[in-house]
Amino acid sequence: MPEATDPGLMPPGLVVNTMKGDPGEHRAGSWLEWDGRWQGLQAALLGIPFDGASVVRTGSRHGPDSVRRSMMYYTTYSSGDGRAMTGFRAADVGDVPTVVTDLPGSHDRISTAIAAIVGRGIVPVAIGGDHSISFPIIRGVVRALGPGKRLGVIHFDAHHDLRKAHLGAESSGVPVRKSLELLDGALSGRNLVQIGMAEFANSPQLAGYAAEQGVTVIPALEVRRRGMAAVVDQALAQATDGVDALYVSVDIDCIDQSQAPGTAAPNPGGLDARDVQEALRRIGGHPKTVGFDLVEISPPFDHDDITGRTGAALVLNVLFGLAGRAG
Predict the structure, then answer these.
(1) Coil, helix or strand for 246?
(2) Which strands form 151-156's sheet, in the order they lie side by side?
(3) For the chain, what is the total number of helices (H) and then of strands (E)?
(4) Helices 63-70 & 306-326, crossing angle to 10 degrees?
(5) Can you list the positions of beta strands (E) in the chain?
(6) Are the beta carbons of 68 and 46 closer than 8 angstroms?
(7) Residue 223 near residue 279 (C-beta atoms within 8 A)
(8) Within 10 A of 12 (CB to CB), how many other CB atoms are there?
(9) pLDDT tens column, 219-242
(10) Helix/strand/coil for 201
(11) With the C-alpha atoms ordered 251, 257, 259, 264, is the resulting torsion angle positive or negative?
(12) Does 171 or 327 have the greater pLDDT score?
């Protein structure tokens, strides 16, 4: 038989499924591929597929892959700013090992991973997972900063997440209270700003606790009245006053359910995703920002990856802010 001609095939799914075929398009998914080198890395996207603390609807353990899959719809180029992020070194470094039935062990591994990443001078961009993961992430950031360092937090959410417990047990509604009470004063209420609290989704007891702690709470209705730009001005000034670093946490349920239906607590009347994108671009560009998480994307309740794509856009805006700072 004559020698067979090489058919010139590509790996399965490379063109259609992941849209990595044209390097000139600067596809976000291709840009985030990791070569295994930590040296020179400026931001690390990592998945935290844990939803063992969900008390309403589970499924957010699949959130990281939903966001990754949605990256195929995006490039690294901002039409509004006229520049791409290709000069900024970011990569998807993988997942933190978690076990859905082992909350303490999973949380310990999260803190260890985050401390190691921040200790290298790399900004972690974590994708959850339920909101319980924010406490071990913040704990890891505090460990990396070292003794005596102060942290500010900007928290986008429909809910306070200031519960002490849920029916006496751990839940996704406790991470912010734990961050205030269990980190030896690294986070003070005066440096915590909560944005997007929904109507008829919180309790007077938790609002009272926030007030006692000096937390700045900016409900969704106030964001609508004042505009997101003014709210971010206030949040950055308050959260960074007298601190060494800034952390931002985003629960996808802060966003209106028309743009983020795939979550444990869909939010009619929530924030506009475009406003949150712009906010995160600005916060990512702040020189004190050292970490970010996006939580509560639950693909089993999504429709055509709407929420995954919304989440991917939020992540890219944070990275764009970081890239502008680095440039």
Answers:
(1) strand
(2) 90-95, 43-48, 123-128, 289-295, 245-251, 151-156, 187-195, 216-218
(3) 10, 10
(4) 70
(5) 43-48, 77-78, 83-84, 90-95, 123-128, 151-156, 187-195, 216-218, 245-251, 289-295
(6) no
(7) no
(8) 9
(9) 999 999 999 999 999 999 999 999
(10) coil
(11) positive
(12) 171
Q: Is 9 helix (H, G, I), strand (E, B) or coil?
A: coil
How do residues 273-292 score in pLDDT, each as one tens digit?
Answer: 999 999 999 999 999 999 99
Residue 289: C-alpha distances to residues 53, 130, 201 (Å): 27, 22, 29
**Token pair belonging to 315:** 């992540």
Q: Residue 223 CB: number of other CB atoms within 10 A?
A: 24
> What backbone phi and psi angles, to 5 degrees, belong to 38?
-80, -30
Mean pLDDT of 297-314: 97
Percent of the chain scored above 70 by pLDDT? Answer: 92
In whole angstroms, what is the distance from residue 246 CA to residue 290 CA? Answer: 6
**Is the CB of residue 312 less than 8 Å from the CB of residue 74?**
yes
Distances (CA, A) of 41 to 5, 35, 48, 114, 299: 41, 10, 19, 14, 29
Top mean pLDDT of 46-60, 102-116, 313-327 is at: 102-116
Write the CA distances from 70 to 49, 75, 76, 91, 172, integer angstroms: 16, 11, 13, 15, 25
Token pair recorded at residue 312: 């991917």
Residue 27 half-sphere exposure toward CB, CA atoms < 13 A: 19
Distances (CA, A) of 11 to 16, 17, 18, 20, 220: 11, 11, 11, 11, 46
Rounded CA gap, 317 and 78, in Å?
9
> What would you report as the CA-atom Rg of the chain, rounded to the nearest whole angstrom?
20
The tens digit of pLDDT for each residue in 117-142 reads: 999 999 999 999 999 999 999 999 99
Distance CA 132, CA 169 (A): 12
> Pairing between strand 77-78 and 83-84?
antiparallel
